[in-house]
Design a protein that fits this description.
Largest sheet: 2 strands, antiparallel
Number of strands: 2
Oligomer: single chain
Strand order of the largest sheet: 1-2
Number of helices: 5
Structural class: mainly alpha
Helix content: 55-70%
Radius of gyration: 22 Å
Length: about 140
């Protein structure tokens, strides 16, 4: 059974934590799809056994709460298994549009973090260049490397 939830591509400009989160989401999605097809998903009370699945996929159980993609896939799988949302207080989204907007919002937040990292790196490079220019103006041609 194919899950229609899209996981964004990993780019080198993303923070490492975000890259790992997306890798975990891809592993989880593949595990869920295979388990639903073969009927081998570990269940507890009719719902996904998150502890066992986290162990199988080699990530922490906290990923179910912290990783939006894993949370969405788990919710989708619970709906397939039981015809309703996950056992945690249900999905916080009333409509698919709200879920999509929340996903887009998370993507923008992640991009913002990546851009802040790039900005910090660029500012450090500019500081080094300013040091070189001041050294040249003073007659001291000392390069920082």
């Amino acid at each position: 059974m194919k899950c229609d939830i899209v996981i964004p591509d990993i780019t080198s400009s993303m923070p490492v934590k975000q890259q790992i989160g997306l890798q975990n989401a891809r592993k989880f999605k593949a595990h869920i799809e295979e388990g639903l097809t073969s009927g081998t998903l570990p269940l507890h009370g009719g719902y996904l056994n998150r502890k066992q699945i986290a162990k199988d996929c080699k990530f922490g159980r906290s990923a179910f709460a912290q990783n939006e993609h894993i949370k969405s896939i788990a919710d989708w799988a619970d709906k397939i298994l039981n015809g309703k949302s996950s056992r945690s207080k249900g999905s916080s989204y009333r409509t698919e549009q709200e879920r999509d907007l929340a996903s887009e919002n998370q993507r923008i937040k992640d991009r913002n973090v990546a851009l802040k990292v790039e900005l910090e790196e660029a500012q450090k490079k500019l500081q080094r260049l300013d040091y070189v220019e001041k050294s040249i103006e003073c007659g001291e041609v000392r390069l920082p490397w």
